[in-house]
Fold this protein.
Amino acid sequence: MRVAYLPRFGPSYWNLEFVSAGSKTPLKAGTYSNAIRFPGSGQQSGMDVSGDSRSCNNLLGTFTINAIETSPYNQITKLNAAFEQHCENKTPALRGSVDFAVHKTGVVGNANCDGIVNYLDIDYFESAVTNPADYINSAAWPLNNCDVSQLDINKDGKIDANDRAPFYTLLQ
Ligand SMILES: [Ca+2]
Ligand SMILES: [Ca+2]
């Protein structure tokens, strides 16, 4: 799971990654202790909080998921978590929390999350249909908190080629 804070302007950014041991089990509410640097290992959960070009080579930490929700499209729609991270396994700690929710514009077909549907959505829509994971994980502003469900134009629970015809109808 990855949450990124990438402001449109300014130098500051944060990147937060959390994963359960073995990367097999979806994260749920609870505390994950003795986490090592993302992606963890088969026995240890993984985490990595970095920002402004600073990060740990190795780390030991703990993170607590207070609330997490995902959409049928495997997008994180809500996250409330706290973390403590010790770079290079040393005593000084980075402590913080993240409270995140997708921006639900409710505008069907609005692929670039700017509130309206027009030709500027075409490239983003095609990216989502071709590779939904890439679209969801896109580092490009403003997609990180876009509500992906608005690209399921025909409301069948999937974002795929079957949404193409109704999408282009929206643009007419
Ligand atoms: Ca748009
Ligand atoms: Ca669909």
In short: Residues 152, 154, 156, 158-160, 162-163 surround calcium ion (ligand 2) (CB under 6 Å). The chain has three helices and seven strands. Strands lie at 2-5, 14-19, 30-37, 46-51, 59-70, 76-87, 94-101. The longest strand covers residues 59-70.
